[in-house]
Amino acid sequence: MIYIVSMAVVAGIYAVMALGLNVMWGMAGLINLGLVGSAAVGAYTTALLTVRTSLPMPVGILAGTAAAALVGAGLSLVTSRLRGDYLAIVTLGFAEAIRIVASNEIWLTNGTDGISGIPGPLRGSLTPLQFNCLYLGIVAAVCVVIYVFCQRLLYSPLGRVFHAIRDDDVVASVAGKWVQFHRVQAFALGSGIIGLGGALYAHYTSYISPDLFVPLLTLYVKLSLLTGGVGNNRGAVLGAVIVIVFLEMTRFIVPFVPYISAVQGAALRELILSGSLLIILRFRVNGLLPEGREHLMLGSPLGERTRSP
Fold this sequence. Notes:
Distance between the termini: 48 Å
Helix content: over 70%
Oligomer: single chain
Shape: globular
Radius of gyration: 20 Å
Low-confidence stretches: 295-309
Number of strands: 4
Mean pLDDT: 89
Number of helices: 12
Structural class: mainly alpha
């Protein structure tokens, strides 16, 4: 039972990160391969504040979210002239830079030994099952709040500007939109949400180290959004659940494969996951829940949805 609840907690955290990625990539069309860097900023910020200064956990999580948003905004300003593959490469380098700093600045992050003893809600007074159930409720509530926020953003004037920039930034600029400013907004919002996911993960595991924030985490989050449907918030949540279920299912399949080592078994798990998701994307190119063409028309009396032709 604890295992199932723990898997649900991790799926919820992945869903939060996938929603953040959807703001940047699905809405604004910004390619970011440095998601794990934003998650690390959120996790280390809340860990340092709650462990070394004994601030309350909610304050640490909010500070981690804000720090990740500020770092994301700064990264967007630095890469303002980059597009496509160039932007992706720089963001990937940003994530690796964060990991290297965390590994070497021992005075701040404790280096590769990591930071332990990160507080969790009522961790010491609850049984492991009770703690996991409580944390699942917290993560589920946060996921619902972020989902509602992203849905409101999707149908807001700012969301429509994001979509316009994604489809054709030149046309958006001609229409009078400050494209660079809105790109910074999208990067900051998305990075902040991903940092929130990293902070939640830190308080759940009670321990973080640079080895946890590797590019593979970015891959899993991107696979979550691709599987569910880029541009669709419901797809982001569904994709995160599917990726976690596939990852854990392979854990039970590999032991039945004869004549392979532990390292080969880990590689086989990744192969099974990749192959399964490729099959899904082969028959559902836009994901299981493709982005809809619905939007809110300006001036509609009750904000009802209308469908584009």
